[in-house]
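@channel sequence for tomorrow's demo:
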Amino acid sequence: MDAPSLHRRPGAPRRLAATLVAIWLIISLLAPSLVQASFLSFDLKDERELGEKFNIMIRSRMPLIEDTEINDYVTGLVDRLTRAMPPQPFPFTVGIINNNAVNAFAGPAGYVFVFTGLILQMEHESEVAGVLAHELAHVSQRHIAKRVGEMKLLSLGQLVGVLAGVVLGSTTGNQDLGSLVAVGSQAATAHAYLKYSRDDEREADQVGMNYLVAAGYPPGGLVEAFETMKRMRWMQGGGVIPTYLSTHPGLEERMGYLKDRVKMLPKDVQDRKNNDAAFKRAQMLVRARYTDAKNAVAYFRKLGDKMTCLDKLGLAIALSRSLEDVGQARAAFDEAVACAPNDPLVLRETGRYYLKVRDFARAKSLLEAALRQNPTDIDANFEYGRMLAQEGKPAQAVAYLEKVRQRVPENAEIRSIYGQILGQSGDLFHAYLQLTYAAVYDNNPPQVKFQLGKAKAAAKTDADRRELAKLEETIKKRSEFWKKRIME
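structure tokens (generated this afternoon):
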């Protein structure tokens, strides 16, 4: 079994359809919490509450990636685009979902989720940015919020279930399955009503193009993304392509008017070049770590003499996942380090590998070098903390794990390992506290009850009891989604 890694979430579901059906089953059976005013008066407070619940469900039920390189990269793209937008009522929060859907979606209250399939299948950063600009335009133009505001009274649980159905349909290309999630005549009608109209899509194209250009990207990014998705639609039957490309008959028209807009731009804007350095790093990690290992090995090996240092690292990561014989992976990692000895990503990943094979001296040297180059790298801090604990230095390890916890607060595996290390250091109260949080974020009510009891018994001070109160508030927010867990 592989050593623990913060890239996997214990028990995280891997099938998008089943996951979102489960989202609806849980959320729609919550104790009724009606928004008492008609949604004709749907305001920012209502949207914030809806967005928070939607975000909790997506993050608790979908396999999210917590890799510094990938998360910081995508967050940077969104930040760059939002700086080109008018002021928005909510900050944007970004999550990366490990799924091959070639899409992204922006939910209520600024919660943005990007699927790894989008990063993997695009050729340039400007194409990913184009899709994100399109989704952010739906937010700035208030397409979902306006439609919610025009609907009749629904419970908050029903409405989140409806949104889950919309997301399901838009990310799997299966509208029948999306409608199945929105069970009940009211919800089914709302599901049909909430889907973006052709006019919505046209406006998102035009406004998204404005944001893309204002952010400094090559203006053809959105058109090129559509071209890529169009090719994939014909090759794959549309299963992982956004529904707005597979169901609207006007795709050629949309691409046509976007191309016409590009031609009308100043020549210096038309001639902008792609800068894909950061994009290629994120794409390599997605391919090497999150796709089928054997397919990834074949992809990198096929490059032959054209392999860059980054490709060599990708091959090494893929080999480390696919081979029982560690010799080939070791050689590949060493070759990557020789090729790029000062790249913190190469150093981090090679250090992670040597920690996995329990070569602690080599792992320590590499991880320390990675942290010198990039002290804020959460993955490097996580692996170095684990290494210190395995060396019998839990008190030193705690400082590194605390940094990681602060940056990635809702990862069950990080909380679990942090709790184990705190236990080794003798801090039993905080050990049980972290293990309770781990159970909360892993959606494991029996373990929550067990670990919470241990934490309460270990609490000695007023400060301990204040931390317990904060934990219990988190449990309260999450536990409403457990009430009908037996239905899964």
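heads up for whoever presents: The first strand starts at residue 93 and ends at 97.
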